[in-house]
Amino acid sequence: MNESAPVVKETGWRNERVSSSLPEVYRSMKIPKNGSWFRKFLAFAGPGYLVAVGYMDPGNWATDIAGGSMFGYTLLSVILLSNLMAILLQALAGKLGIVTGRDLAQACKDHYSKPVAMMLWVLCELAIAACDLAEVIGSAIALNLLFGIPLIVGIMITVVDVLLILLLQNKGFRYIEALVITLIVTIGGCFLVELFLSKPEISGVLKGFIPSSEIITDPKMLYIAIGILGATVMPHNLYLHSSIVQTRQFEQTTLGKRQAIKYSTWDSTIALFFALFINAAILIVASATFHTSGNTGIAEIDDAYHMLAPLLGTTAASVLFGVALLAAGQNSTLTGTLAGQIVMEGFLNIRLKAWLRRLITRLIAIIPAVIVTMLYGEEGTMDLLILSQVILSLQLSFAVIPLVKFTSDKLKMGEFANPLWLKILAWVVAVVIAVLNIYLLVQTFRG
């Protein structure tokens, strides 16, 4: 199909869709036409959990640990607010893919001029590389803590996951979803035990979910709070979700799309509540273990690992923490691979073999991680982890604003365009995210 062929203007798109998103799995999973709503929901369930992975990756752990150890349960309200924002944005991403048949990258390429689209592509690739960097470092730290494997060796071991991902992609998309859900359950199970061992104060936890004015008035608390917000909503997840919802064979009718939007939104919302539980659990454990014992300076993953066992009186606490960290790091690599493929194919229409694309992305993350580890050791890798979150924060608005713009456009979305109340809410969230991330960047560069 000719890429430059004009589309009827009423559609709101300048060009015909050149190709489907993730063609090897596009509309590969059947949806039962008959049967109960639960059976249909199960057929749609899966993509939300791949999206939820990005909200519990190692990059989030440091901010949650710092927030809990320094300020107790107070910042639980920030985690809740971040999650609600994520639920809204992921629902919009899913709707864009279902209604238009385009992922966010393809939509950006069509809507914006070539220079703007190229800028968005470069920024998104940087964000994916930064996210991959966090996963590499997180997995390497977990291997070091659990098995004593040197950080550099651990970083090199993470290359092996290329083979695992290639195997799963060849077997079918359900296998990737099944592995991701298994790892999420592993992380959740580990932190369920951690919560039991740490014995948090229930009244304090419940109070923590109520927003406090102290978060705004205390500069240190505000900085950590914005860090949590910035680390929670992941830009590449918006590209990912708009693509993987198209793996389902829903009917290309108004009713079929409406049903797909409903089940897809349920799927991502339920999955993101799992992410809320895990992020909240990290902060609660840090608060109940470190803050209450006066260890308010615990802000790094390895410090938390080493302090859990003596404070809780069992080595199981540290081991479970390490296992959860390793599962989080490996889980995030799966979704990072898919996001990288979607972004490259959507913006450039360049198709690389899955293993080659994954290897390139992984090497971009491994090279700086190895250099920094060799020069500065563990302290340097933690600084690199923080830098990766800053890069993610910088790119976030460049994904959120186009998403809100496209899903609010009646020409592009037709009757599925955001109603006025949703349009206002989405733009408020987009502006809040942009302002907070600018503040976070300014404060970070000021030191």
Automatic annotation (TrEMBL):
<dbReference type="InterPro" id="IPR001046">
    <property type="entry name" value="NRAMP_fam"/>
</dbReference>
<keyword id="KW-1133">Transmembrane helix</keyword>
<keyword id="KW-0406">Ion transport</keyword>
<feature type="transmembrane region" description="Helical">
    <location>
        <begin position="175"/>
        <end position="197"/>
    </location>
</feature>
<feature type="transmembrane region" description="Helical">
    <location>
        <begin position="359"/>
        <end position="378"/>
    </location>
</feature>
<comment type="similarity">
    <text>Belongs to the NRAMP family.</text>
</comment>
<dbReference type="Pfam" id="PF01566">
    <property type="entry name" value="Nramp"/>
</dbReference>
<feature type="transmembrane region" description="Helical">
    <location>
        <begin position="37"/>
        <end position="55"/>
    </location>
</feature>
<feature type="transmembrane region" description="Helical">
    <location>
        <begin position="147"/>
        <end position="168"/>
    </location>
</feature>
<keyword id="KW-0813">Transport</keyword>
<feature type="transmembrane region" description="Helical">
    <location>
        <begin position="270"/>
        <end position="292"/>
    </location>
</feature>
<feature type="transmembrane region" description="Helical">
    <location>
        <begin position="75"/>
        <end position="98"/>
    </location>
</feature>
<keyword id="KW-0769">Symport</keyword>
<feature type="transmembrane region" description="Helical">
    <location>
        <begin position="424"/>
        <end position="442"/>
    </location>
</feature>
<feature type="transmembrane region" description="Helical">
    <location>
        <begin position="119"/>
        <end position="141"/>
    </location>
</feature>
<protein>
    <recommendedName>
        <fullName>Divalent metal cation transporter MntH</fullName>
    </recommendedName>
</protein>
<feature type="transmembrane region" description="Helical">
    <location>
        <begin position="221"/>
        <end position="240"/>
    </location>
</feature>
<feature type="transmembrane region" description="Helical">
    <location>
        <begin position="384"/>
        <end position="404"/>
    </location>
</feature>
<keyword id="KW-0472">Membrane</keyword>
<feature type="transmembrane region" description="Helical">
    <location>
        <begin position="304"/>
        <end position="328"/>
    </location>
</feature>
<comment type="function">
    <text>H(+)-stimulated, divalent metal cation uptake system.</text>
</comment>
<keyword id="KW-1003">Cell membrane</keyword>
<keyword id="KW-0812">Transmembrane</keyword>
